[in-house]
Amino acid sequence: MSTNRARTDSAPEYRWPEKVPGLAYGGDYNPEQWPQQTRLEDIELMTEAGVNLVSVGIFSWAMLEPRQGEYDWGWLDETLDRLAEAGIYAALATATASPPPWLTHQHPEILPQTAEGVTLWPGARQAYSVSNPVFRDYAVGMTRAMAERYADHPALALWHVDNEIGCHNSHDFSDDAAAAFRRWLESRYGTVENLNAAWGTAFWSQRYSSFEEILPPRTAPMFVNPTQKLDFYRYSSDELLSYFRDMKAVLREVTPDVPVTTNFMCTTRSKNMDYFDWADDMDVIATDHYTIADDPQRHIELAFSADLTRGVARGKPWMLMEHSTSGVNWQPRNHTKPPEEMLRDSLGHVARGADAVMFFQWRQSKAGAEKYHSAMVPHGGRDTDVYRTTVRLGDALKQLEPVKGTEVTAEVAVLFDYEAWWGAELDSHPNNDYSYPEEVLRWYRGLWNLGVTTDVVHPSDDLSGYRSIIVPGLYLTDDATAERIAEAASRGASVLVTYFSGIVDEYDNVRLGGYPGAFRQLLGIRTEEFWPVQPNERITLDDGSTADFWSEKITVTDSGSGAAEVVRRFATLQRVDDPAAAAATTAPTGIFTLAGLPAVTRNTVGEGAGWYVGTRPDDDAVKSILTEVLTEAGVAPEHEDAPEGIEVVRRRSETESFLFVFNHTGNDAKLKVKGHELLSDSKIKGKLNVPAGGIAVVQET
Q1: What is the pLDDT of residues 79-106, one digit of tens each?
Q2: At the fourth CATH level, which superfamily is domain 646-700?
Q3: Over 50: is that where the pLDDT of 586 sits?
Q4: pLDDT tens for residues 555-575?
Q5: 503 CB contacts (<8 Å, ≥6 apart)?
Q6: Is 164 one of the catalytic residues?
Q7: Cα torsion angle, 163, 164, 169, 172, sign
Q8: Which of 486, 512, 487, 509 is nearest to 497 (CA)?
Q9: Model's pTM, two decimal places?
C-alpha cells in the first residue's frame, strides 16, 4: 500500500527566468480588454515605471480561439512584439484558465459539480473539471498551440500554466471525478481490503466489496467517513497537479529551455492544494498573496505567507506573481492601501525571499467582476497616487538589484502541513471551532513579535539545522514524522508541540493509549481526556496568564530521563459573561476539575527538550513561553536593538548581508546599523532612522 507523500530528499533543478534583468517587476497584462491607443500608452507607462516582466494571455482562450480550430493570433503577436522592442519580457500563459463559451456549449460534460450535485456553470472562470478527458484534451491542445506559436519569440521568458489552479474548482464531485478518485484509491491502496482497514469501514456498515462502489464524499444524511474525505482532499490535490503536469510536458517538449511555473496561493486561506507536494514540479515557485482588510495585523500574516512560500521553495528565491496595489473587490469591505503600505507589502515579500514583485493587474479593468480590483494603473490613470507609487516601487526595486539571488536563513522552524490542516478541520471533533491556520499563526505571531526570523517548512524537510522547532496543531502525524521531530530534539533542538497534535495517523485513525499519541514519548506526558473550553469561559494559569478554547487532563510520565517538568499549571476557570465571576481572582473550590494539573510541560530529551502546551494561551503568554524556549535554545532576535513593531529580516549571500527594516508603527525608530542604505543611497555610520511607516534596506558593512 502506497502512503508516503513526503517530499523527495533532494531539491529539483532550480530554473529562474534568466532573461529578466534584476528583480522582476510587473503584473498581469490584458491588452485584449483595451483599444489600440491604450495599448500604446501601456508600453510608455511600463517603461516609465521600470516594468520588466508581465503575465500575458491568462484569460484569453476565447479571444485567441474564437471558434473551434480558428485562431486569431494578431493581437497577441503585436503585444509580444511591442514588449520585446521595449525590453519587457513575458510570463506567457497557456490561456486555459477559463474555457471559451463555444467549448462549454458543445461539451457541457466538462463542467464541475458540487457535493450537492449542483453543476457550476459558465459565466465566471474555471468552469471546468480537470478529470474530464474532453476538457483535458482541449486544454493540452491549446497549450501546444501557444507553445508552437511563440517558442522562439524573444519576449518569452517564462511559461505560466493556467492560473491559480484549483482556486474555484478544487473539489469536483462529478462522475468523471468519481472515476478518477476510484483509480487514485486503487493506486494508493492496492486492494479494497486495505482500503476498508484504513477507512474503518466496519463503522456504520460502510464496508466495500469493490472499488466501483466508492464515490466521492458527496452530501450524505450525516457525517461522511472522515478518512474518505481526507483521501478525497489528497486525490483532489494530486488530480490538479496531474493537470499541470500534462501541460508542462507539452511545454517542456516544445520549449525545453524555458522555465515553467504556475501561481500558487501560499496563504492561511488556501488549503486545498498541498503545495509542498507540488513544489518539485515547478522550475521556480510563484505565489499570489492578498492581505485581509479586517486583520489589524495583516502584515504579520503577509510575513507568514512569504515565509511559507520560501519553505515551499526550499529556501530558494521565489516570485510574487500577484498582489494588490490598493483595495481588492472580493472582501466585504475592501481596504484602500496608502502608498507606504503598498511599498511595505511589496518589499516585505522581497525581504523574505521574493526576487519578483508583480500585481494583479497592470491596468484596472473598466468592465467585469474585477473592475474595482486595484491595479498598477488605476481608473484615474497617470495622475494618481497609485500610479506614482507604482513608479516609486519600480525605482526602489532597481536600487535593490544587489539583493537578487540572496537567501534568508533562520534558526527556528515552524512546521506546516496541508494534510494536518485537512485532518484537523474535519467535522465531529472535540472542538469544531478549531482552525489550523489560526493555531499556526498564533505561534508564528509570537516569534514575529520577538523579532525572530522563522522558516515555515514541511515536517518531512531537513530539521537538523534548527535550534528550535515549533509544532503547532500537527493533528495528523505519521510515524516517520514523529521520529524525525524526536530526533531533532535528541540532537539538541528545543521542540514545542501544541495541543491537538499527534492525535491520529495518516489514515485519521486515533493513536490509542492516550494523547498526544505520536508525541507521548518525546513529551513525557499522557493526556487522558480533552476538555474543550466554552466560548464564554476563560482559564487562568498559575503564573497569572490566561488561556481559552482548549484544556486537557495531563499527567507527566517518566520517558526514560526522569519525569517531565511542569512549567505552568491550570488554576481557575471563569465565566466571562458573569460580572461577579469575571471580577473574581479565583473560582470557587472544586469548580474547575483541572485546577492544579499541568498545562505547560518540559521534558529533557537527549541534548534537547520537548515542550508541550495543552491549552490556547493568550498572546502575552505565547511570547512568555516562547521566550523561555528560545532562551534555552540560544536563539536571539534578528536585531537586538529593534523596538516593538519594527520588523527586521536579513537576506544573505556568502559575502553580503542585507538588512530589511519595516516600521509598522506611527513613530520614528532608530537602530544601530552600519552600511549603505540602498533606497536613499546613503551611508549609515551607526544609527539608522526609519520614519513612521517607512522602510530601509541596508547593505551591511
Answers
A1: 999 999 999 999 999 999 999 999 999 9
A2: Golgi alpha-mannosidase II (2.60.40.1180)
A3: no
A4: 999 766 678 999 999 999 999
A5: 475, 476, 477, 510, 511, 515, 516, 517
A6: yes
A7: positive
A8: 486
A9: 0.97
Alpha-carbon distance 111 to 353, whole Å? 38
The DSSP-derived string for 130-187 is TT-HHHHHHHHHHHHHHHHHHTT-TTEEEEE-SSSTTTTTSS--SHHHHHHHHHHHHH
Q: Are 488 and 464 in contact (CB under 8 A)?
A: yes
Place of cell 544601530: 672
Distance CA 464, CA 487 (A): 9
CATH 3.40.190.10 fits 24-170+259-402, yes or no: no
Please classify residue 4 by burial: count the beta carbons closer than 10 Å to its beta carbon, then call 0-12 exposed, 13-18 middle and 19+ buried: exposed
* Catalytic member of 301, 322, 341, 647: 322
Q: Which fold has domain 412-633?
A: Rossmann fold (3.40.50)
Q: Is 584 a residue whose pLDDT tops 70? A: no
* Nearest Cα residue to 696 out of 391, 688, 668: 688
The residues facing 356 across adjacent strands are 24, 319
Kindly give the pairing relationship between strand 608-613 and strand 546-548. Answer: unpaired
**SS3 track for 475-498:** CECCHHHHHHHHHHHHHCCEEEEE
Please report, as a single letter, which amino acid is at residue 189: Y
**What's the Cα-to-Cα distance from 102 to each of 67, 98, 122, 257, 667, rounded to whole Å?**
7, 12, 11, 34, 58
Q: Minimal CA–CA distance to 134: which of 117, 114, 115, 111? A: 111
Domain ranges of the chain: 24-170+259-402, 412-633, 646-700
pLDDT given for residue 589 in this prediction: 45
Encode pLDDT of 213-253 as tens digits: 999 999 999 999 999 999 999 999 999 999 999 999 999 99
Q: Please tell me the distance from the alpha carbon of residue 270 to that of residue 524, in angstroms, as a whole number.
A: 35
Confirm whether 48 is a catalytic residue.
no
Rounded distance, CA 66 to CA 77, Å?
16
Report pLDDT for 577: 77
